[in-house]
Design brief:
6 helices, elongated, 0% strand, mainly alpha, 60% helix
């Protein structure tokens, strides 16, 4: 048989350009006993349907049975997620926003009080010291000097 024609048919087959008649020619060629060694790996591609394994009439039933066995073998352990756990990322985001706003407000206080001169800052410090003297909680001063709360009250009352 002419192998060039078979090679041309194979080229057309790989390009999906063959007709059914040409494919039957290829099948009959690959059914022969003596084919070239370079074409031997392609024999399985054109094997007869008779020699290939049939699926059978009960194929669908067997597949469905295998699927149902796999599904029953798999046990999914699901746990309930409470509303608190579900909203936890939202709570965390709200806490971060609150912290940022608090820090922003605390850092903005010096600019809001118009500390343009050292006297303005000293006046602000005196106000803080007077609040610390009145409150039951001892506040730390910005400077290392000790402050006597009674002397501050006396000075305020004189002014």
């Amino acid at each position: 048989m002419d192998y060039k024609y078979i090679e041309q048919l194979m080229e057309r087959y790989w390009n999906a350009e063959t007709t059914l008649e040409e494919e039957s020619i290829l099948r009959s060629f690959f059914r022969q006993e003596n084919i070239p060694a370079e074409m031997e790996p392609l024999r399985a591609l054109f094997a007869d349907e008779a020699s290939s394994q049939k699926l059978g009439d009960d194929f669908d039933a067997r597949i469905m049975e295998m699927i149902s066995k796999e599904e029953s073998a798999k046990t999914v352990k699901a746990r309930e997620i409470s509303l608190t756990h579900r909203l936890m990322p939202l709570f965390k985001a709200a806490a971060v926003v609150a912290i940022i706003l608090t820090i922003g407000g605390a850092l903005q206080a010096p600019w809001d009080n118009s500390w343009n001169t050292p006297q303005d800052y000293a006046r602000y410090q005196q106000d803080l010291d007077s609040v610390a003297a009145v409150s039951p909680i001892q506040a730390e001063n910005m400077s290392d000097n000790a402050v006597d709360s009674t002397s501050i009250l006396m000075e305020r009352s004189k002014n």
